[in-house]
Queue: 4 jobs
Job 1
Amino acid sequence: MRGLVFFFAILLPAFCLANTLSTAASNNGSGGIFLDLTAGANDVSITSFDSPFTGTSGTTVNVEVWTRPGSYVGFDASSAGWTLTQTILATRAGTLVNAPIVLTTPLAISAGQTLGICLQATASGGIRYTGTAAVPPVTNWSNGELSLFSDVSRVATVAFTGTRFANRCFSGNVNYDLVNTSPIVWGTVILQDFFGTVAGRTVLMEIRSGGIAVQTENVTLGAGGSYSFTATVTPGTYDIAAKGSHWLRQQVTGVSVTGTGPTVNFSLANGDIDGDNEVTIGDYSLLSTAFGSGPGDPNWDPEADLDGDDEVTIGDYAILSNNFGMIGDN
């Protein structure tokens, strides 16, 4: 899961987007927990953790933050190769309530790199986590920008000592800044008259200047048609176009691609089976050929399944008829 709070930062020369990666609620503990964090396509800066603690709410506890380049896997029994980066004073908030562990020095992770982390409470009433021997936890979490793996805890007040438990995962939130040197274009694409699964479909995005594409991206849509991509063009004002496989192109003009990047939303008209950016007799011909078919049939054409119900029927004809004669933006 992911919570996003976008804000403007001073560009010197990069900017940051504040984000959160969340895992499951705690049901076990306590002591210390190991986790790997892997950055996606952008550098990230880990600013804080939120996690529940055992012990009386309102009391304080020191948390050591240890790190090592690469994964912690195979290295949880000794401090060799680890660095104690800081010790944070946290205030317990209850066994089921996340308490902030705010880092004095953020942890930097370069794009595509993994950082092993050990969070160790130095007194009883330590960090809680999720997972039991009978009910193993989900150990891998990701939001596309940051991935987390965690499957080891140690019940102790001294790091790398005490009883080791597998099938234990970090519980709570990892808060981080997404560091970019280029704006991010993001928004939502509505695929009109489509009732299939939107997530996973690709849309061709173009950043255009003077009618010429200066950046082209095949973007995979997320839930609800969400998308994002990094703009590599020189900051300025551009037109941005989107085209789905059997949807007409739509262009949004005069978009300022600067700073943290623009929000650009699209709503694409359906019916362009042959992909020529207009709904004409050629699309009718392809639909007629595929009519009555489903996946596996010799005449099956997934582009003719306009409504996404895995069959080419009168419903697809209705969509094409309603949009017949339409032409997408150039």
Job 2
Amino acid sequence: MPILKKIKCCYFAILLCPCISNAQQVNSLTDTIKFSIDSLDHVFLQNNLQLLAQKYNIDAQRALEAQAKLYPNPNVQFSSILYNSQSKQLLPVGTNGEVTAQLSQMIILAGKRNKQIKMAQANTQLTQLQFIDLLQTLKFTLHTDFYSLYYLHKSASAYTDEISSLQTLNSGFETQLTQGNVSKKEALRIKAQLYSLQSEYNDLINKINDIQSEVRTILHLQKVFIMPTVDEQWVNNLSATQFPLQTIIDSAMQNHSDLKIAKLNTEINQMNYGYQKAMAVPDLTVIAGYDQQGSFTKNYNSIGIAMDLPFFNRNQGNIRSAKIQTQIAQVNEQNTEATIQENIYNVLTKAATYDNLLHSRDTQFDQSFKALQQSTLENYRQRNINLLDFLDFYDAYKNNVLQINSIQINRLTAFEAINYYSGSIFYK
């Protein structure tokens, strides 16, 4: 694919130095593919098998729509005498035989055929809306996974920096311990901190691998490592106050697939209610017949009609059930509308909360903290600070990085949720 830039590399050439546990490594033949959000969507639309299956489902429903337009087949009956005992003939013909024939055609009354056609067409529309709903749901999952991977990778980089520094420090301490220059307690405390970071890092890598697996499944890609590329300037410029709440709600009322599906389900149930009432009217059958010599006259030709008499079964149960199902669909539609409005209010509130939290931070804080990390390590080596201060700073640095990345993940998830619930692309 021309939009993909493939780079042959090992997973931990990016994330991990060779001394980390072999259990965290992946196949060296894994391809690392850099994706922007646009290239991700392009591959998704081309490759996703769930979308392909749903497209086939639309075609299948269109076939049922064509089936509903067909008229009932005519019915023909023919019979002949098998054996004439008087003339001793098998299948006699002519004056010694007896032949009857009948042709019948059902005529559907009360507009049942047109009602079936309209229901089939509505079901086709329903399948199309389900396709759109699947598309929006998968895209929401894909986008949130994409941004999660990006910021989790940044968190992983913070771990590798600290682990690398502590490994170097631990190696020096082991040498100094044999020479009696440091206490065993201090050396063990450094090693314990290193093991703790490695364990946390391993948990983070497993989380990344789980998200990678989900993304690969959605994109229908195998043996690749997804490396997201994100425009951080665009991310930081996103604002929860850019669009009014009512504008987003109005968009959802017109565009959200769940609400469209709920409304169409109400219409389909109303159609079915009308159809079941029409089913109370019996259909008419027109019959044309011929009897060679079994009637009061030879070569008897007849025409007639047949119809069920609705004395007992007037489809009462199905009519009542269809009416109740219509009422249920109407309640579900109201519930869907209320749920969507509440979800939009909730995610917009979350977006605003994370927005305020992000922009309330000092823009130079993270850079200053990063620069201070190396000087803190050097100060500890020179014994300008004690072990507790050193470890406390490293924990504070790690927690700060994890916190800011978590804020960004939750913030972008909220913005993607606004797009999802509104049925429109407000933030892109």
Job 3
Amino acid sequence: MIRNRLILLFLILAAGAFASFYGGISYLPLFILLILPVVSFLYLVYVFFSLRISQNVDERILYKGEETPYRFVLVNEKMIVYSGIQVSFKSGLYEATGLEENRNYSLLPKDRVEKHAQIRCLYRGRYPVGVDTITVTDFLNLFCLKRSAGEEIPVQVLPRVVRLNRLAAAPLDEDAKAVPFSMTHTNDQPDVESRSYTPGDGLKMVNWKLSARQQELLVRKYIDTPKTKILLIMDLAEIRPADPVTRIIIEDKIIETSLAIANYFVRRQTPLEVFYGTDRLQEVSMGIQDQSSFERFYKTCSDIPFRSLADLPVLLKNAAYQCSGRSCCIAVTHKLDGELCQAAENVLSLNIELCIIQIGGEQQENNLRHNLDKRVRFFRISKEQEIAEVLDAKQGGRIL
């Protein structure tokens, strides 16, 4: 475009010099060269405002990673040729197959261009997809105008649930045993005492040696064993400073990580308590004991806003003081600072096991990590990593 402008300027100067020497009809090329850019710009403005575009997707609500058909149409309703039309698409949050970036379109009178593609959304959240801007260039390639595509196409992308085979962030005793805990209050460990057999007792409970000595069918008495209480704390504070794409990516990974951890314990029949803050300085506690309560948690996470006014250190402190007996806190956050390090020390002083999972934060100072108590198990998941690469011990997940 700059080259064309320089060529036009050179031709105008040359035509002006020629006309100044010869006069008369020699001014005609100068007038033509002066009028041409004006006509070209008026053509550009006309096309810019008269071009019509429409676009749609088949599904407005879909799961992360799911594909949906997409279509956009450029329409020329006038009797002149449209040329130099270029469309650009919103990028960073989805992949599109079948779309050609930076292609110039030309439309004959009463013509239309229709393009089909498959869109696959990469992150949880609510955001627009499709054509972002339209750039129109005049036929001399001297000027260009850019405008938005008009009405946006927002999609609601639901989070996925990642299945972790062995959670690297699980409590140390639970991880070592690698066996599910009981979610009921039924007895699970045999005591040395026995009692008389009653109908309904399983044969595996019968103490055959003692029964033979006592000449009576006796079964072992079972007692409860203390279980580690799991606390999952989600940091839903606004993520800043961050561009919209980075913000959505980090939000997606915080939600995905929290769902994967909750799903892991539900599958292993281990109850847990989830804590998070809201935009009204309230703290929400949600118990998850079975699949139905996990589904309620999933529904909450599908559209929960990141506008919490409660800082993670405060949430961590309040959740820890509600603990009794053996407990383990797992905090999922995007921010590691001095206040969180201090709160971690307070939690550890209550003999509570603590694990912190940081999403992003690659550019934060390394000394913040060193300020954490060595007893805190710390994991970092970058924006580019899959959470299973870090949190699934069977895939090499490990503490940093």
Job 4
Amino acid sequence: MLVGAALTTASYLHAPRFIHVETTLTLSQIRYFLSLSETLNFTRAAAACNVTQPAFTRAIRGLEEELGGRLFSRDNRGAQMTDLGRLILPALRRAHEAAREAKRLSSEFNGTQALTCRIALAPSVSTSLLVNLIGELTKRTPHIRVETLDSSTDTCSRSLSLGNVDAVLTGEMDVLPDDVTAHMLTRERLLVLLSAAHSWAHIDHIPVSRLNELLWLVQDGIALPKTVLRLFANFGLWPKVIHRSTNGRQLEQMISAGLAFMLVPEHSLPRSGLLMRPIEGDSLWRNIQLLLPHNVHRRSPADAIVQAVRHLHRSHREDVAERAIG
């Protein structure tokens, strides 16, 4: 049963003889265990829980000491769940859901208290894209507090599924978990990033006919949107990617040296000596999505976000209709 921030597992488990009869687990340990059971990778699991890997590893080891046995083993393939880990997994999943439900009920009961809304930002997504949403949230729910967290493409949807964040702001994603729903928030232009010393720096738009001459850099975790590939395909072209890296600054240094180009969102803040130029016809855009849990509880932070997004879309449609009439 849940008592404060602890769980007594004796009521859940028919424990093997080497497990203590009474064992106290923290909710953080349960959350870390569930994250690792999904990823089977300590680094990715720690990132999904927004905690450093050393702290994450210590928590897992502490959990194993409390339970009196190994929950995960490590080999060349990464982490593998042991028989004991598989045995307790269903019980800890139920405990995690019970804790989330208790938190939801508490938030509903204390509806006038401060409500914290945690939104994870995928790579290349600027906080500036949240300005209208945050404004609408604070207007509709004056006591709400919004926290933004940086996240990787691999871990953002997993963090949402685990309840570590309430929403994720990201570009287009081809595959989503079953328990996550995507809501269209806005659209954003994609621009070509080039050196200010490049011969094309003086032109206002990059000609489509010259795209085949360009060599491209790609930042890992930021896939080329389908709109980009479609544009190239329409002209019988294919992006010539010469280098990939997880280090955005390293890629910018290569662009400064005139070695290649890179597509970036218009809200990016490039370093000094770099310029952003649209492709002819302003033909490159990407959709910005807001990922939310499939099941949204009433008066939860996710519910506040859903209501704010709906109001923004309704206001946008009304503005478009008024301009059309005018």
